[in-house]
Amino acid sequence: MVTNLKPHAASISVIGAGIAGAWQALAFARAGHDVTLYERDSAAMTQATSHWAGGMLAPWCEAEASEPVITRLGARSLDLWREALPDTPFNGSLVVSHPRDRADFDRFAKLTTHHARIDATKIAALEPALEGQFRDALFFADEGHVEPRDVLPRLHDRAASAGAAIAFDTNWQPDDLKNGKNNIVIDCRGLAAREDGDTDLRGVKGEMIVVETDEVSLSRPVRLIHPRWPLYIIPRGDNRFMIGATSIESEDRGVSVRSALELLSAAYAVHPAFAEARIVEIGAGLRPAYPDNLPRIAIDGQRICVNGLYRHGFLLAPALAELTLGYVERGAIDNEVMRCA
User: What is the C-alpha to C-alpha distance for residues 304 and 336, in angstroms, rounded to an integer?
Assistant: First the structure.
């Protein structure tokens, strides 16, 4: 039998201040728990996987290549983002293709829901910069996006305002913090959790490029159908755009010439003006993933490991934090996500 963990007597230690840990700390602090968030990186979080993320909140687009649980949790996360950060942009997502990829476009449409097929006139009304570029598109009106490097420190601030203590530059391990029967450790270290025996985890490289141009203006992410990868262009502030992302079974952090060419070609295929854009940054992050590419909340006594968010970190983190909180406070179990030792 699963029992709860004396919610209002528990002290919560969260290890890892990336997107998963930030949401865990925020959820528990807002619920009135004594929370400390530990992070071995500095407050800039430049070593975190979140630093290289796209920040798309697109549960219905992701249904094309993921299990239904991703859509279910992702849709719930949209409400949690709106509640925590009401200014989160929900301008929708556009999916486009060129004639040679028409079959893949039609397949994408059949495998996803919550979209409308729009013509060239409506594309131009939504994104004037794309006028004349595509004959039709899929518009997912309810989806959104965030800028990871902006929103992560905001989540840290929200957690601190709710009462959480945050300790950067501290390399604590789970066993270092289990110092009392009422202390619960929530491990959100991503690939670093392998140090404590989570050998099922692997790193999946995602490469990205940031460019700058004042010749293109977009209000929402634009996905370009690609035969191998989900390629997208995400608007950021100051005339910058993130182009991402590859999905490569490798733990090398370098960016290959082939990947760079494909990403830049994708941007050029969306709008020719990207050919004159200035490259600001090229980099790669390693997404923590389990063999089934599904998230997992593993419960082992006082330690709860939240991991395996794969390429859905910003989409899933709020819902996973809500599930963890529900378990600690009420013993609630989500059988699709949780595993108990």
Answer: 16
